[in-house]
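User: Show me a protein chain along with its predicted structure.
Assistant: Here is one chain, sequence first, then structure tokens.
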Amino acid sequence: MNNEENTIPNKRKDDGFTSGLILIAVGVIFLVMQYSGFYIHNWWALFILIPVFTAWNRAIRASIEAGEITDESVQAMTGSLFPLFVASIFLFNWDWGRVWPGFIIIAGINGLARGWGQKSD
């Protein structure tokens, strides 16, 4: 129980650190947009990326702590693909009617990743 109490605050600290870095990056992008010709349509979709990068940070840390790729890290990475794809659709103005098969591909990747981590008896 003591070990769990020690890891939960660290996890929250790591998530806050990652979220803070992402917000700084988003702020820099907005600042660049103000003073240059660079412009992102649907800029609000950048905020969808915050939980994506937080999940990636969690996955990397779980793998580093375990010394191997864990089920938790695989699930965090594959689970972040859906919001990453949605954010990409908005940021790059992709046509939903043309890119919808990407959601099927993401579902397949999730299925493969879950099967990959299971050991056969």
